[in-house]
Amino acid sequence: MLLVSLLWLAGPVAAVPNVSVQMRVVPATHSFTCRYTIALAADDTATTLVLNLGRQLRIENLLSSGSTPRATRVYYPYFDDTLQQVVAHFSGRARMVSVTYSGTLEGRLFNDRALVFSGHSGWLPFRPYRDYEVVNYVLEVQAPAGYQVESASAEAEQRAGRWTFRGRAGAIEITALVAREFQQLASAGAPRIRVVTVGPALTRTDTMLLRKAEGIIAYYNRSIGQLDPITRFTILLPGTNSDAFGMLENATMITYTDFDVAADREALLILAHEISHKWWGYGNVHTYNDWLNEAFATYSSLLYLREAGDEAGYQAELAKRAATVGNAPPIRGFDYRKYPRPMYRRVVYNKGTVVLAALHERLGTTQFVRLLGAVAARHVRDTDTLLAIVAQNNGQATRDWLLAELSR
Ligand SMILES: [Zn+2]
């Protein structure tokens, strides 16, 4: 099996790492065994490859094209916890590490119907401070008889209890939803939007969710996504009731059991926020550049509210956030390690949203939306690149104004 993945990993030159994940899941005990193999892109000449792995995972085997990797324990500030770190050194051209490990899902990641292996499940290794780097992947999931597997992409090969998915995703966002039964609702036309839910029957709430997602995606595709539109999208609803998150790979996981976009403005904003992470997911989550993800996603959701005719809602949601930023530190250079956790939301989400609203006001809707489209298409990772795009599109004075807003 490893030989097969190595041959595949040695394939055509790619700018991003190639990852192969072979997972066997045991639903009865919520446990799993994984073989994770990463090969660096041919143009990546690093002589060392470091992988972080959750503290709770049991490493069973380590292989590498270089020196025999070692695993040590290190502190990872982002988790405020220790984890295991695997380090391999290379001398030749091949840069590949393979880790075999087993683990058990935490209680918030399963219910009596489904098991969630995804962005917040801590089930995959990742390079330090590159949790969300884009990788090409092949995911193979082996599940016992009577179980099905779903992922972000609809296309899967299925053979004798094995599901294979291929795609391009954030490193820790590779997703497998395992359940006895799925229900699916899909839009009739393009883009193809799917609502995938776990359980015996679809409800009216699922239909409403699909309709709202169609409206949100149609709006985004003619605004922030005008240069890079969504052509397919998957909404996964495992019903485990812990959180919601968007993924680069045209998908979102919404676990809330009472999620009703027709009844609740909060739910509608969450849906719009998470869908927009398809574009807003390239900023480094370990630095203040996370505002490029979270403030942009939050402001995109507010723009949708306004587009849908809820001007009062737009104003109220903006005012709610503005009220929290009074004496918050500057966005530029904000270091989450130096503040209590709640400050993160005030600076990176709320203050960032207020700055974007002010930029919107300054530029007017036509220019502002065109700027968002340009930023989205460029997969901007850092604020200096954003400032350069603003200078190019909107002039030096606006660029200097934005820098001042981010610095105060
Ligand atoms: Zn977000």
UniProtKB/TrEMBL annotation:
<feature type="domain" description="Peptidase M1 membrane alanine aminopeptidase">
    <location>
        <begin position="244"/>
        <end position="379"/>
    </location>
</feature>
<feature type="signal peptide">
    <location>
        <begin position="1"/>
        <end position="15"/>
    </location>
</feature>
<protein>
    <recommendedName>
        <fullName>Peptidase M1 membrane alanine aminopeptidase domain-containing protein</fullName>
    </recommendedName>
</protein>
<dbReference type="Pfam" id="PF01433">
    <property type="entry name" value="Peptidase_M1"/>
</dbReference>
<dbReference type="InterPro" id="IPR027268">
    <property type="entry name" value="Peptidase_M4/M1_CTD_sf"/>
</dbReference>
<keyword id="KW-0732">Signal</keyword>
<dbReference type="InterPro" id="IPR014782">
    <property type="entry name" value="Peptidase_M1_dom"/>
</dbReference>
